């Protein structure tokens, strides 16, 4: 009888211990969820040409700012600025052109005091790696040699705007109209050339550097177009201005600049 009572006692103690473990496990799980939910998400709307550099920056920034989680949305600067103006959720805007940032600033879409230039770029003529096209300068481009020339849409894509300015300066824009294939952003222009769907294309030097499927034939002279400057700013409607500013500061820091240089930015 005593043995039976002792057995029941031990059984009850064991069940209570298991229940305690289950409670601790549940508490630990809840604690992890709480820790995860404590992170502030910073939404960064950025020019497509920044894709590779920003993706490399993300883990190092988050490691140094373990209370922040960064999410990117890439596209053409003009369309991103328009999205912000229309109320799209965003904390940071990184533009590939001064013009698109100016428009947003004029409409009080950004925090003016946070605005800063963080990179520069160059305009280059690219062709598929195996292309036999013999061109050493933009001035040497002959419309008769090309079936398709991929460029960014000039109205909304900064690289397209710089391209148009360049060819207008050279008196060639109208002559090339029948050859133009328009891309929604600079990465689509790069893809057209990589895939052979365009004989040549105009992209940033940084984009050309990311691809092993293309080669650079020529670089546009800076005086042919407006300066290719990348301004960044905290979006006025953000609820996370401190974290957004921290991301911008990191981009301008020595570590951030090293990564940008690695991907061809100046």
From TrEMBL:
InterPro entries: ModA, ModA/WtpA, YvgL-like_PBP2. One of its GO terms (biological process) is molybdate ion transport. Keywords: Metal-binding, Molybdenum, Signal. It comes from the Bacteria. The keyword Metal-binding applies. Pfam families: SBP_bac_11. Residues 1-19 form the signal peptide. The keyword Metal-binding applies. Molybdate binds at residues 49, 77, 186, 204. GO terms for molecular function: metal ion binding; molybdate ion binding; tungstate binding. Belongs to the bacterial solute-binding protein ModA family. This is Molybdate transport system substrate-binding protein.
